[in-house]
Structures are given as structure tokens and as C-alpha cells.
């Protein structure tokens, strides 16, 4: 048993959340986690399953950003509903409803024959997201903003070079930075993006995408911010499905320069 599995790994929730989490069994969850700790709350008779995110300091800031985006996105897309949110000077607690279904990754692994239909469903959901009017979105997440954050992460030594994709194994963070600069400037094509549109963050049930999670990076950015991450996730399932993603989304000739740029940028987060 790891520390993450033990009861004492649970955070001490503030009084304002105590009643909402009472009576639940807790299980540590790592799918879709983007820093901090995520717990699945389940097993309470007559009550829906919930998720609790908890983090301190910089992670608390990220959870605060996610809570704001969940509240805004709820009017446009199926996302977890915020049940309770509590922020203290050093901690954040975000209690959310659980979406029904499995992650897109789980479905692709378990149901090989359904893979083309799943890709079509993912592309349809992405089109729906990208169709949200940019003028309605209060969050900016374009590559200029992300490059500034990436530079700060490099300077602080926060980039995990051991987690780089295979084609960039052996690179330093500065190598990635230099590669990004060589691909600039990029023609802007702003839409409302998820920011981390990966197979683990998309929930599927009955052959449809019923929602997305981990929306803390959502905001106005180039559409390839989402396309590149999803395209890269599909690598292990073969180039035919990668090609189908763009065909189903409605792009006949993918912009390889933008793909390279956004995949390199993602290495720094």
C-alpha cells in the first residue's frame, strides 16, 4: 500500500466542506490529475459520486483557475459541476460532480472495433468546443502567454526533461525553447480551447463524448493547442486514427508547423 492509498493521505477539509463529504468512501485518483491530489468520493447511499481536488500554493492557484473555468464552461459544454469551492491563503479545495462513463483512452483500449467511431465523437466534441464564440470567453491562453509561463518554468528548473516525448529524448529544456523560437511567428487562429485535450480528459459513454475534465488551462488560443495534444495521444493507436481525427474535424491538410510547435510547447508543462 502506498502513502496515496492510506486514509491519512486525505486532506483535512475546512468546515464549509465537511458536511458535503461526510459519509463517502475515499479513493485516490490519478487519471486526469494535473497536480495536487484528486480523490474520488463514492459509496454514499442515495448520493452521487464526487471528486475532490486539493492543492497548496502554486497548485492551489491552478485549482482556483480551474474552478473559475468550470463555472464559465458549464453554460457551453458538459463539465463537472462545482459543488463547493474553498480557497485559503495557501490551500484550495474544489469539490465537483463526477461525469458518467470512461475516459476516451479506456474506451479505445477496451473496444478496438469502436475506435473509428470514438475518433469521430472526439472530433465532434472538439468542433463544439471550438465553436464557442471567442467574444464570450474571459480567459486568454494563447501561445504568447504560455511561452512566458514556460520560460519561467525553465528558469525555475521545473521542467521534467525525462518526460519528453520519444522524439525529444535527450533534449534539454533549452533545446525545446530554441526549437520553439525557430518556429515563430505563427499565424493566429484563435478559438476557445480546452488546453489539455488529451484522451484521459475526455469522458465517453454510449459512443458519445459526455464531457471533459481538467479544464484549468482553458481559454482563447490557436485551435492546434487542442488538435496537437489529441493527435499526439493517438500515436499509440496508429496513423490511420491520427489521420481520421483531422478528416473528421474538417481539416484536409494538417499544419505540421503548428503541430510541432504546440507539441514542443506542451513539453515544458
The gist of it:
Belongs to the aminoglycoside phosphotransferase family. By secondary structure, the protein is α+β, with helices and mostly antiparallel strands. It has 9 helices and 10 strands.
Set down the secondary structure blueprint.
Blueprint: H1 15-21, E1 25-29, E2 37-42, E3 50-56, H2 57-73, E4 82-87, E5 91-97, E6 102-103, H3 104-110, H4 115-130, H5 143-155, H6 173-183, E7 190-193, E8 202-205, E9 208-212, E10 219-222, H7 224-233, H8 239-249, H9 256-267
Antiparallel strand pairs: 1-2, 2-3, 3-5, 4-5, 6-8, 7-10, 8-9
Pfam family, one: APH
GO biological process, one term: response to antibiotic
Family: Belongs to the aminoglycoside phosphotransferase family.
Low confidence ranges: 1-8
Number of domains as seen in the coordinates: 2
Please summarize the sheet with the most strands.
5 strands, antiparallel
The chain-level mean pLDDT equals 94
Quickly give the structural class.
alpha+beta
Report how far apart the termini are.
Answer: 29 Å
> What is the CATH level 1 assignment of the largest domain?
Alpha Beta
Query: What is the approximate shape?
Result: globular
CATH architectural grouping of the largest domain:
Alpha-Beta Complex
Name the assembly state. single chain
Figure out the total of helices.
9
Range of strand content: 15-25%
Number of strands: 10
**Share in helix:** 25-40%
Order of helices and strands: HEEEHEEEHHHHEEEEHHH
Amino acid at each position: 500500500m502506498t502513502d496515496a492509498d492510506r486514509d491519512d493521505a486525505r486532506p483535512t477539509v475546512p468546515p464549509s466542506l465537511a458536511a458535503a463529504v461526510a459519509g463517502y468512501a475515499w479513493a485516490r485518483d490519478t487519471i486526469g490529475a494535473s497536480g495536487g491530489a484528486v480523490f474520488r468520493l463514492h459509496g454514499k447511499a442515495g448520493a452521487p459520486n464526487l471528486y475532490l481536488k486539493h492543492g497548496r500554493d502554486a497548485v492551489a492557484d491552478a485549482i482556483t483557475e480551474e474552478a473559475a473555468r468550470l463555472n464559465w464552461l458549464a453554460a457551453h459544454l458538459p463539465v463537472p459541476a462545482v459543488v463547493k469551492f474553498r480557497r485559503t491563503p495557501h490551500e484550495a479545495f474544489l469539490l465537483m460532480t463526477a461525469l458518467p462513463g470512461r475516459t476516451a483512452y479506456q474506451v479505445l483500449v477496451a473496444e478496438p472495433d469502436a475506435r473509428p467511431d470514438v475518433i469521430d465523437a472526439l472530433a465532434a466534441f472538439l468542433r463544439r468546443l471550438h465553436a464557442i464564440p471567442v467574444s464570450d470567453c474571459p480567459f486568454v491562453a494563447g501561445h504568447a502567454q504560455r511561452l512566458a509561463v514556460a520560460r519561467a518554468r525553465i528558469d525555475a528548473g521545473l521542467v521534467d526533461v525525462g518526460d519528453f516525448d520519444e522524439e525529444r529524448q535527450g533534449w534539454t529544456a533549452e533545446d525545446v525553447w530554441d526549437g520553439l523560437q525557430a518556429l515563430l511567428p505563427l499565424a493566429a487562429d484563435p478559438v476557445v480551447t480546452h488546453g489539455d485535450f488529451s484522451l484521459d480528459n475526455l469522458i465517453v459513454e454510449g459512443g458519445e463524448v459526455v464531457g471533459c475534465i481538467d479544464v484549468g488551462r482553458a481559454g482563447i488560443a490557436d485551435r492546434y493547442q487542442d488538435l496537437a495534444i489529441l493527435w499526439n495521444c493517438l500515436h499509440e493507436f496508429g496513423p490511420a486514427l491520427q489521420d481520421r481525427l483531422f478528416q473528421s474535424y474538417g481539416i484536409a491538410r494538417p499544419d505540421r508547423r503548428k503541430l510541432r510547435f504546440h507539441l514542443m510547447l506542451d513539453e515544458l508543462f
